[in-house]
Amino acid sequence: MPAQPQPPALITLFENTATTAGLRDRLCAALRQAISSGALTAGERLPSSRLLACDLNLSRVTVEAAYAQVEAEGYLQRHTGKGTFVSQSLPRAPSARKSKVVKPGLARISARGQKIVATGGCRDPQSPVAFAAGSPDLRAFPLKIWKQMTARQLRVEGERLLGYGDPQGYLPLREALARYLQQSRGVSCTAAQILITTSSQQALQLLAMLLIDPADSVWLEQPGYPGARNAFASAGADICAIPVDDQGMAPDPAFPIPRLIYLTPSHHYPTGVSLSLPRRLHLLEFARRHASWIIEDDYDSELHYDGRPLPAMQGLDKHQQVIYLGTFSKVLFPSLRLAYAVLPPALVAPMVTLRTVNDGHSSQLMQAVTAEFMHTGHFASHLRFSRQLYHSRRDHLLAQIGQKIDWLIPQVSAGGLQLAAHLPAGQEQYFSTLAAQAGIETPRLSPLFTGNGGSPAQHQDGWLLGFSALTPSEITTAVNRLASLKVPAISQTMPAATSQPRR
Ligand SMILES: Cc1ncc(COP(=O)(O)O)c(C=O)c1O
User: HTH gntR-type domain location, by residue (predicted)?
Assistant: First the structure.
């Protein structure tokens, strides 16, 4: 019988297969790939195990074992006395020349999908390194109580918590939230208006899906929360970035009438400014006149250190146009994945239906534990404790920067887990690189600015410094590192008076 020439593709594939695999597995992988790519065609005869072993410098036993394995998978047919052949019954691989050239990657994604990918998404910090923004101090969480309550819920409620749950959310949690929001935030609602979600981000995504048609105008604060920008941009909205001054969002009549206005009125993200009462009333009246929705994202108002925050805007709404959002990510812990929306009655049924097609509901067990944590007063005492802890950390960070760094101007804010700090104009990239080289994370302010109508965003240079998850000595060490950076002379480049701290 004439010697079969060795298929060169098979040899190349074998040589290129990950060398960490065993020799038999490498040969199996090369055979599968050669057949599924069409390099070996249906019915083609393979070299004998002796010849292939010789060419690949393998033992004949290894080649026999690989042939037997790939035969068992259906890629090969072996006939005693005749040889080894590529199976005739496999679907034919497309011929490279005939198949239409398809651009890899985005070409197979829908237009909506491409918009979502283009936003770049949003990722939260995964560890409490200085100065990653936005995380509570998980080391200060009352884990022991939480464990006891989890065990108690499982003992008492048992398998009732293991099944699918109410897509609107666990009723005792919605009741606890309604009471808490009325008393502490002046939100006017009943448990029937509350929808539990896994995050504020999920609530934003659902609202964008329900309320926004492509090219609808959506007003966002400038600078503003990228999570909201991404949610509305991915729904095809026309984003209008409205400037924020020391009274919060300052609407300009030149902007198109919005279908929806997204706000962080208690504590503007990222500057911490509170939306003044006249502006709140003006925006509510504006929304009434133009039938616009308002989303009030009250993401961290519980963590307020100087005086009391203004009550929620939702409590001033007479026309059921405000959707109030809150989250447990900041006041309990982010991996809990529980947040809530207080909906105008007309939106309850549509949003619950949307929730059913968007992963159904949140974990019943975690909702039950959170409800018990609230009912038994542990939530209120954990809030009091966190407020004191983060208050002292904010003051410590401000004092440290004030004493040691003259090129960074913090913007004092009355609450929250982070603060904005301004850098000399045009220096954000340079200073961030220096800080990164010193092992300090400094989330940048410029990505929080959006250009309007396709024009590039005018931004302020600065950082958003998270302090809540850091102990005083961690804050001191990190500020010392920043203070020792070799920065250029700055007298000409500090921000203008308008971006100096408010107090
Ligand atoms: C303004 C704002 N809203 C919402 C959230 C996130 O909440 P969640 O984890 O529930 O999506 C954040 C997180 O940093 C935020 O800054």
Answer: 21-89
Does residue 274's CB lie within 6 angstroms of at least one atom of ligand 1? no
- Ligand 1 neighbourhood includes 199 CB (under 6 angstroms): yes
Whole-number CA gyration radius for the chain: 30
Contact 134 CB / ligand 1 (< 6 Å): yes
Token pair in block for residue 85: 């052949």
pTM here? 0.80
**Does the beta carbon of 200 lie inside 6 Å of ligand 1?**
yes
Tens-digit pLDDT profile for residues 264-303: 999 999 999 999 999 999 999 999 999 999 999 999 999 9
pLDDT digits (tens, 9 = 90+) for 101-116: 455 555 688 888 888 8
Contact 441, 371 (CB under 8 A): no
Q: What is the per-residue pLDDT across 172-202, written as a single tens digit (0 to 9) for each?
A: 999 999 999 999 999 999 999 999 999 999 9
Distance CA 27, CA 62 (A): 9
Which residue, by CA, sits nearest to atom 15 of ligand 1? 299
Nearest atom of ligand 1 to the alpha carbon of 339 = 10
Q: Give how far Cα 295 sits from Cα of 146, 312, 326, 430, Å.
A: 31, 11, 11, 36
